[in-house]
Design brief:
The protein is built from no helices and 45 strands. The chain is an all-beta fold. It has 3 domains: about 120 residues, no CATH class; about 35 residues, no CATH class; about 290 residues, 6 Propeller (Neuraminidase). The strands form 14 sheets. A 4-stranded antiparallel β-sheet has the order 4-11-12-15, with no helix packed on it. The radius of gyration is 32 Å and the shape is globular. It starts with about 40 loop residues before the first strand and ends in a 9-residue tail after the last strand.
């Protein structure tokens, strides 16, 4: 640790000179620093974000050849550079550069060439605490050089802001390489998720941005009228017919879907004669067939899918209360998230904001119950409220969200003749409470495929009722989130009759933030 420390109101005496910036003259002056010293330096280790202005290090060690350049003048030091040191002239102000390289310095009385050897500069909470084993650092460190021991005694100096030029690299590693007890504000690159992430004091969150968002909605699988592997897409910013995208790895219906702004997942379903545990993925911006992603925890169908920018949630698969999740940017099998607490896991639906997912079961003893969970953490769901339509005997409403409002629409009555429904209700995602009446679909509609933008909810195809002889639709309804009212016709058609599939988009309500 430093042998000499200068604190508030301390006397400081420097032989043959004055002290610091704007100080009083004479050998017995007070250390009087006027202004702010700012520095540019290379950091190896972990940095913490504290303000828009820059980085302040938390126990940083700079051990590679590095440069600290104090932009303010008046430090009265020599400038070292690759074996040649500038001469110190009394009462002359210089900009200062400390080069942590092997410099060939020579001591010439009052005129000094300064050099340093490659060692550790330790910075803790924005303060320079110690420079160890250096041959010479000089007055730059606001300390004292001992020519007998060739050591520098350094006082604490505070750095208000760091400006990095050229290239700044943060530590990187996978999910399993995160520190167990990271410092709040720690930033790293997670190569499993292909994104920067930070620790907020409670959990890891990801930096994201909507690269490549085009307003494309993708839906696939289902029945047309038999089981299909077809994937189609829509341009959500303009009306028009759906266009073929590619094929799933196998034909199946009653599957779940979730997506980031780049990649979409189709999970589970019923290919017949038994359920599937397959998770497929596609790249939303391109067209082509799906690839194998991994497997669900158990083979199942009719689960609810939701997602943030990085994590996909599948809830209630195979008529259970199980919730699983995957990291969308990776490939691999789903892992346990928690359990549904009130709603039965059967014919469920889900939607999301960037931080939370909501789930409602369409076939339980209490089909109106809505629950929610936090996407970035694991655990059981918590009661949100109730849907405002359907009574105690209805199935398969569909849900979407723009991150602010969640929309629930359609479904069918369980009592014969299984009439379809056209009601629409909504919730505010950031709160809890019962759903509120919104309007109606253009016609009774159930088993429709749904996708969403930040502005509109799209209800694609479906069937008029569940009697077995209902009308299958090629039409598309659109609901504007910001207004209360009935749906309108989108002005385009599905790419053939479709029902009982699943959809996602590159611009839904779960994206953005982290």
């Amino acid at each position: 640790m430093p042998n000499i420390r200068i604190g508030f109101a301390s006397d400081f005496t420097l032989k043959n000179g004055i002290v610091g910036i704007g100080s009083t003259t004479g050998s017995g002056g007070k250390l009087d620093v006027d202004g702010v010293a700012k520095a540019n330096y290379k950091i190896t280790g972990v940095a913490t974000l504290t303000s828009y202005g820059g980085f302040i290090g938390q126990k940083q060690h700079i051990s590679e050849p590095s440069t600290i350049g104090f932009a303010t003048v008046g430090l009265q030091t020599a400038q070292a550079a690759q074996g040649v040191g500038a001469t110190h002239v009394p009462n002359q102000y210089y900009e200062t550069e400390i080069g942590f390289t092997d410099l060939g310095g020579v001591h010439h009385g009052d005129d000094q060439y300064f050099n340093t050897l490659s060692e550790d500069l330790v910075i803790d909470d924005g303060q320079i605490l110690n420079i160890t084993n250096t041959e010479m650092v000089g007055v730059t460190t606001i300390g004292e050089y001992d020519p007998h021991t060739h050591a520098s005694h350094v006082c604490a100096g505070s750095l208000e802001q760091v400006s990095v030029t050229g290239h700044f690299s943060v530590p990187c590693g996978g999910i399993n390489e995160r520190k167990e007890n990271p410092v709040e504000g720690t930033v790293r690159f997670n190569y499993d998720l292909n994104t920067l992430e930070f620790f907020n004091g409670v959990e890891w969150r990801q930096f994201t941005y909507n690269q490549g968002q085009s307003g494309r909605g993708v839906y696939g699988g289902g029945e047309s009228p038999g089981q299909t592997d077809q994937i189609d897409y829509l341009n959500l910013t303009s009306s028009g017919n759906a266009i073929n995208f590619g094929d799933l790895t196998d034909a199946r219906f009653q599957l779940a879907a979730a997506s980031s702004s780049i990649r979409g997942l189709f999970a589970g379903g019923d290919p017949g004669p038994s359920n599937s545990d397959v998770i497929d993925y596609i790249t939303i911006a391109s067209a082509g067939n799906a690839f194998d992603f991994g497997d669900l925890d158990t083979a199942g169908r009719i689960s609810g899918g939701a997602s943030s920018s990085t994590r996909a949630i599948f809830a209630g698969e195979n008529k259970t209360n199980v919730i699983t999740y995957v990291e969308i940017a990776t490939t691999g099998d789903a892992v346990d998230f928690g359990q549904l607490t009130d709603a039965s896991g059967d014919k469920g639906i889900a939607a999301s904001s960037p931080t939370r997912f909501v789930y409602a079961s369409g076939n339980s003893t209490n089909p109106q119950i809505i629950e929610y969970g936090t996407i970035s953490s694991r655990g059981n769901t918590i009661t949100f409220g109730d849907l405002n339509y359907g009574g105690s005997a209805f199935r398969l409403p569909k849900a979407t969200s723009n991150g602010i409002r969640g929309i629930f629409a359609g479904g069918y009555e369980t009592a014969s003749p299984n009439a379809g429904m056209k009601q629409i209700c909504y919730i505010t995602m950031a709160t809890t409470g019962n759903a509120v009446e919104f309007g109606e679909l253009t016609a009774t509609r159930q088993r429709q495929n749904c996708v969403s933008s930040q502005i509109k909810s799209f209800h694609i195809g479906g069937e008029s009722d569940a009697s077995g002889s209902g009308t299958m639709y090629e039409s598309i309804d659109v609901i504007i989130y910001a207004s209360g009212g009935s749906a309108t016709d989108f002005g385009g058609n599905t790419n053939g009759e479709t029902r009982n599939g699943a959809g996602f988009s590159d611009s839904h309500g779960g994206l953005g933030g982290y």
